[in-house]
Write a structure and sequence with these properties.
The chain is α/β, with parallel strands linked by helices. The protein has helices at 2-15, 35-64, 134-143, 165-182, 197-208, 226-229, 239-242, 249-254, 273-276, 291-312; strands spanning 71-72, 88-94, 100-107, 119-123, 127-128, 146-150, 190-195, 214-218, 260-264, 282-286. It has a domain at 76-224 and 245-312: Rossmann fold. The strands form 2 sheets. It has an 8-stranded mixed sheet with strand order 2-3-6-4-7-8-9-10, sandwiched between helices. The protein has a two-stranded parallel ribbon with strand order 1-5.
Length: 322
């Protein structure tokens, strides 16, 4: 009993704030944080947020930068039939699962046409789709050549994918394989013809395929990648590490081994640097402006095909059904 009483007295003293000897009980002060550590933590938090924001900006630029150069349209609103041309709509470039990735038009030349031995693969501009190129296809068809045109992936009725330099080159290689493998067209009778960024593509692919007849470049873009890298948003991110497209026209022109025709807008006289790099036979035509440009364009094409026929004399291709 005496022990229990002693314990109760001890508890009473503790609860009253007194120590065991009756002296006031002392309490340790709460821990404090150095202001320096607070500032450091705040700085690290702000820095981490800034890094996350910048990384997000890089990701968004990487995903959307293609829209600065390529402007595809899905709806095909016009076909060669609207311009009085017979054509076959074809799909090609099958995946391993058998899905056909690309949509194109085969526009045959008349049997007795002047240049019926030639097949032109037409590569359209970076804007719109094939329906915006019908007049250009009619101009080629009127010369008397076979015309094969297609939409790149992401354009028209072709498979959806973000456009890019590597994909455009792959799509064109598939078109060439379709002509030579399915329609049995002699590659020595194939001409690549492009406009705008399609002209850059024609030169790039022609440089990689010296077996074809030649390349036609109408109004190529001398610095196509600047549409991406000169955008103000590109200065906020490492754009040249995020974007692979370069479209180096000078490098492709220097590698050409086939005859080429360069059709330039206006009435200039100084050849662009890329054309000066061409070491093989080339023709450069300044088309002028307005209605005269289209007339000069058609005449230049006719003269160039005449020269090509006189020099190379390729055998006529055999066309098979699509």
């Amino acid at each position: 009993m005496a022990g229990k009483k002693q314990q109760l007295k001890s508890v009473a003293r503790d609860s009253s704030g007194l120590g065991g000897n009756g002296a006031p009980r002392t309490t340790a002060p709460p821990p404090t944080v150095s202001p320096r550590w607070l500032l450091l933590a705040m700085g690290l938090t702000v820095a981490a947020a800034a890094v996350c924001a910048w990384a997000t900006l890089c990701l968004l630029f990487w995903q959307g930068s293609w829209q600065l150069l390529y402007h595809p349209k899905a709806a095909v609103t016009r076909t060669p039939a609207g311009a009085g041309m017979d054509f076959d709509a074809v799909r090609f470039a099958a995946t391993d699962a058998g899905r056909l990735r690309l949509q194109g038009w085969w526009i045959p030349a008349a049997a007795n046409a002047k240049f019926a031995r030639y097949t032109v693969i037409y590569l359209h501009r970076q804007n719109g789709n094939l329906s915006d190129a019908v007049d250009a296809l009619a101009a080629l068809h009127n010369l008397g050549v076979n015309v094969f045109a297609f939409d790149y992936r992401g354009y028209g009725q072709s498979e959806f994918a973000h456009p890019g330099e590597a994909r455009w080159r792959e799509d064109t290689a598939w078109a060439l394989d379709y002509l030579t493998g399915t329609r049995h067209v002699d590659p020595r009778t194939v001409v690549l013809a492009g406009e705008g960024l399609g002209a850059n593509l024609a030169i790039e692919v022609a440089a990689a395929h010296p077996e074809i007849a030649g390349a036609i470049a109408r109004e190529p873009m001398t610095d196509a990648a600047s549409a991406i890298f000169d955008d103000p948003r590109a200065r906020l991110v490492p754009a040249r590490l995020l974007v692979r497209d370069r479209w180096n026209l000078s490098s492709a022109a220097a590698a050409l081994q086939v005859p080429s025709l360069w059709l330039l807008a206006g009435n200039g006289s100084a050849e662009p640097e890329a054309i000066q790099k061409v070491s093989t036979r080339k023709s450069v035509v300044w088309m002028g402006t307005g209605a005269a440009a289209e007339k000069n364009y058609a005449e230049a094409l006719g003269r160039w095909l005449d020269e090509l026929s006189a020099r190379r004399q390729p055998a006529a291709p055999v066309h098979s059904p699509s």
